[in-house]
Specification:
The chain has 438 residues and is mostly helical. It has 19 helices and no strands.
Length: 438
């Protein structure tokens, strides 16, 4: 049944497969660096590999939760039907775990090859910058590559526990009713957990404010990651609040055209779908902005000297986070938009023109991107402020327009292009044929 679902809905699992592929590749890469350190490459090389490996596992888990959550929602009706015909919650969870395990095994061989090549290139770059001994080499053994698969599978299984919570708890008939009329709430358990994580992230940021710069830099990243987890849990509430505020002009300008009004109202009314779209954008903006703000603040704070090699390493971290965020953003937005083909077909049949739908789609794409950018900035702000206090430069972090503008612009362009591209393809389909399809 697990592989049958993978064959029947390949687009729904594309984002998860891409995230698992990146995770196996990156863990294999940094595991190879740790192996190189163990064979005479120096303790610094092992520390770099370990630090990057921790970040990769955290990011892989977070992105897997996002992409797997979408894949599970795509199967919500089928899983609800299984519950009504006597499938137990344990069997439903096992089905999802088998899907994750199967995808991990499927993507592992090419990911091993990419990880091995990347490890050698990265080690060469470290040697050139004096961050690793001149004679350091990546050992030829397959152990780091093979260990990357169970490590990634573990991250995927953690994601599966979160993604299957809603469908595997509660009475089966409630799950089936929800597929027909999804609620806008997130549940008391999820809401309480989200508030608890947000409180913990706030406490961590306060702790960071009193640490030394090096410790504070890592703490700021962990604080931003904790806030991202809180945002993922509270996503429908947060996304609906932000889109209500920034979409107000479009709702008030109803007489100027229905496209913007329809987009604003539609996003407000589908909080869960909006949250699925904006959380990956917030991930891309929030963590990248945190890294850039921390690095810039360190460089401009009095008495803090940052070696060029450390700046380069932080740039690599930003690029890695941006890659994970890009995968999550593209896969989620494309799949979400493509999944609405019946909705667009119905609008066409009741009289909406293609031009009206394109205008509504464009307005919705811009609103979605703006919402994600606002939430991402909100995630980055507490950690950046805490770090600014830690280095003694006051509560205002140094924010370089030249460094932050490409992040915001890139995330916005990526999100709008992905949603528009997928939406235009869906709108071009014949509406009668689309509605007649199963």
């Amino acid at each position: 049944m697990a592989f049958g679902a993978l064959r029947a809905r390949p687009a729904s699992f594309a984002g998860l497969a891409a995230a698992l592929f990146l995770a196996v590749s990156a863990i294999a890469m940094f595991g190879s660096l740790i192996a190189a350190a163990a064979t005479g490459g120096g303790s610094d090389l092992g520390a770099i590999g370990g630090a990057f490996g921790e970040i990769v596992i955290i990011m892989a888990t977070f992105v897997a939760v996002t992409t797997l959550g979408f894949a599970v929602r795509q199967q919500h009706r089928e899983l609800a039907l299984l519950r009504t015909v006597a499938a137990t919650p344990r069997q439903v969870r096992r089905l999802i775990r088998c899907q994750v395990a199967g995808l991990t095994l499927l993507v592992s061989p090419p990911a091993w090859a990419l990880g091995a090549i990347a490890a050698r290139l990265f080690l060469r770059a470290l040697v050139d910058r004096g961050l690793a001994p001149a004679g350091a080499t990546v050992p030829a053994g397959p152990l780091p590559l093979l260990l990357a698969t169970p490590a990634t599978a573990l991250a995927g299984l953690i994601a599966a526990a979160f993604a299957t919570w809603r469908i595997s708890h509660g009475p089966p008939n409630a799950a089936l009713v929800e597929t027909a009329a999804p609620t806008g709430g997130i549940g008391r358990v999820r809401g309480g957990l989200g508030l608890l994580v947000a409180g913990g992230a706030g406490a961590l940021c306060r702790f960071v404010a009193g640490r030394e710069p090096d410790e504070a830099a890592q703490g700021a990243l962990l604080g931003a990651l904790a806030l991202m987890v809180a945002l993922a849990l509270l996503g429908p509430w947060a996304a609906r609040l932000v889109v209500t505020v920034i979409g107000l002009p479009l709702r008030l300008a109803r007489g100027a055209g229905a496209g913007g009004w329809l987009a604003a109202v539609n996003l407000r009314g589908h909080a869960h779908r909006l949250a699925s779209a904006v959380v990956p954008i917030a991930l891309l903006v929030g963590l990248s902005t945190t890294f850039v703000a921390v690095t810039a603040t360190m460089r401009h704070a009095a008495g803090v000297v940052v070696p060029e090699g450390d700046i380069w390493l932080r740039g690599v971290e930003v690029a890695m986070l941006a890659l994970f965020g890009t995968v999550a953003t593209l896969s989620t937005l494309v799949a979400l938009t493509a999944d609405r083909r019946r909705e667009y077909a119905l609008l066409r049949l009741v009289g909406a023109t293609r031009r009206q739908l394109v205008r509504a789609l464009a307005a919705e794409a811009v609103l979605t991107a703006l919402t994600g950018a606002v939430l991402g900035t909100a995630v980055a702000a507490p950690a950046a402020v805490a770090f600014a206090l830690a280095v003694g430069g006051g509560p205002v972090p140094y924010v370089s327009v030249g460094s932050n503008a490409p992040i915001l612009a890139g995330a916005m362009i990526l999100a709008v292009a992905a949603q528009l591209g997928a939406g235009l393809r869906v709108i071009a389909l014949d509406p009668a044929t689309t509605l007649a399809a199963p």
